[in-house]
Amino acid sequence: MNGGDDASSSAATSGPPPSLEWRFSQVFGERTAGEEVQEVDIISAIEFDKSGDHLATGDRGGRVVLFERTDTKDHGGSRKDLEETDYPVRHPEFRYKTEFQSHEPEFDYLKSLEIEEKINKIRWCQPANGALFLLSTNDKTIKYWKVQEKKIKKISEMNIDPSREGSSSIPPQLVTNGLPADKDHGYLSNEYSFPPGGIPSLRLPVVTSQETNLVARCRRVYAHAHDYHINSISNSSDGETFISADDLRVNLWNLEISNQSFNIVDVKPTNMEDLTEVITSAEFHPIHCNMLAYSSSKGSIRLIDMRQSALCDSHTKLFEEPEAPGSRSFFTEIIASISDIKFSKDGRYILSRDYMTLKLWDINMDSGPVASYQVHEHLRPRLCDLYENDSIFDKFECCLSGDGLRVATGSYSNLFRVFGASQGSTEAATLEASKNPMRRQIQTPARPSRSIGSMTRVVRRGSESPGTEANGNAYDFTTKLLHMAWHPTENSIACAAANSLYMCSSNIVMLCPRPKADQSYRDESTEEATVIFQELEDSDNWVVDELGFTDLFNQLLPTMPWNSLMNRMMKELHDHGKTIEEIKQVLRRIPIHPRVIPAIKSAHALGCELRIVSDANTLFIETIIEHLGIREFFSEINTNPGFVDEQGRLIVSPYHDFTKSSHGCSRCPPNMCKGLIIERIQASLTKEGKKTKMIYLGDGAGDYCPSLGLKAEDYMMPRKSFPVWDLISQNPMLVKATVRDWTDGEDMERILMEIINKIISLEEEDEKDKMLSSDNCKISVGIVHEPMVPLTLQVPLNLVK
Fold first, then answer.
1. Rounded to whole angstroms, how far apart are CA atoms 291 and 465?
2. pLDDT of 614-660, one tens digit each?
3. Which of 3, 158, 286, 496 is in Cβ range 3.0-4.6 Å of 43 for a Cys bridge?
């Protein structure tokens, strides 16, 4: 339970962050004025996947709709954009991907009960081999879906009647047997005759796969395990199991086994007349697969540890707020019922939502919530009316930002609230699910409709008058924002207003803390694959060319080693009045392939360790990765030292100081042998007892040396038509590793994913056994570049299914 000891924990930041200014981003399914909303179209569930690249919604008609993010494809920005701004803030943009019918209405004949098709919850599972996986549930049945692109097979060439061939430029319409379509083919036609000597050539049908189509297939159905309505499903961090909860029980499932589950929580009394509370929500801990929390209708949250017993009838910790003396009324228990709970990303905090408030709990402190946020306190005088129209039973969801600095929940009139969760923060905004989320409506008591203004509205908690919005308008209790989700890595919120899905984004970039891995479950002998990744641009040549010193560079190139040449060029730049700031400005506008930054961020989000190995220098690399906002993702940089002396000149020193002693490799330049660096990395991993596979990507001649040291189970990915590819092509037998060449960024990404997925699939069974015994297995991904930015990534295998 020490997951929150990280200095970057949500409630332990140094000073409150600035308040967010929200703006409309996108809307899907927007209805026109006066348009009637069909009941089956109302959204009932929203969920982002862990990467934030996909969004799923479910509706009351049993449909699941998937959206995919599109702005990451050009996240690197154009050359002009990079020149004009320092890595501009980009709001997530999504597009419709596909939809499918998840559930149909059913009837339980034994209980004479209709089972609605409404989707109660959606949870994303681990993706694998380019396919998406997710769980969806209605009141009784959970389904495990696989969504994947399938190639459509078509017959592109058919047998042709030789007597008609060549008689017309337009071929006759054919069917699958190759005969003309305008004839009856129920029997062999007497009109058809074979030419003398037979048909000179027989063309067989050719099946081709040119188009792709997204197909959703139900892999598992988990049914007949709940007597009451399912209110929650939640995935375990082990990637193997999930829980489902109804009013009285919590069941544990294995994704691969649909015909049995284990009952781990049961609050059903022997005599139902003694029932005093029910389960309202349940959630797995995001890091510890043995821990989960569930909330009750009495306003309490119980944290349980499945290691204590098979049936967790006793809790590890109980979180509840003592009732104020003299405050009890008929509505006390109703408004205290918790409708939703969420763990923070690091697992240290639990956010809960009851009818009146949001509460933030520290799992290390069960004496009371660390923060409470008033959401509906202004409605307390109207509880009788809310009870009469059943609004008091509305179940609002809550969510936390990925960095844990803010919390959000919905309200009436399609409004939602965002509060600052960091210490000392007074941020509290009331926003509307509309194209102008921060607009202030003009007071028009005679009519409830709202007119659009341009003024920003920020409502502090508890500032509303009873029964009205901040602008004085009466609340519309028929339009309620029950479902919302916060993007895991961006300050962007998706919220459902009836059948419309609104996306609102802020002007401030989120810096998400990396959750600590559970070291207590890690086996030091876990198997890893080290991937050496390569950028596509050369920073050294870029600086020389952009500053106009190409001719001098080419003149000196044959006379000295690369590292010494770059040091000389920095002297020339300084002598001609070029400052360090001018060099940095050039580096900040270097064109980076659009697939690089999303790949780095995705790897980091999956818990990867990134390293850099480069023949450039520290100033060049630090400037580029800091400008792109990815410096914090890297744990190690291996490159030539570069520092600015007192005269303001950049001094570039060799990684291996050849003036004192040689590194001993005749294949590599005197300043750096990448083969020795990779050997050191391999040796350190072996010393830790980790078996490794290596995937090495490179393009320069300096990448040839490490390629010769790869083993048979490793992979070498040279860039086609570049020096290292030419050297390998001269004698491929010298490289023991499997060689897969690539041409550009997209090609490289595709091949790299193929190799990683192959490694995962080959070791999947072993990894399952290890994970079931609580052993974590990791893939280590490395990044290297000849004169530019290289990286090293470590991807846990149990995170990639």
1. 41
2. 888 889 888 988 888 888 777 778 888 998 998 999 999 988 888 88
3. 496
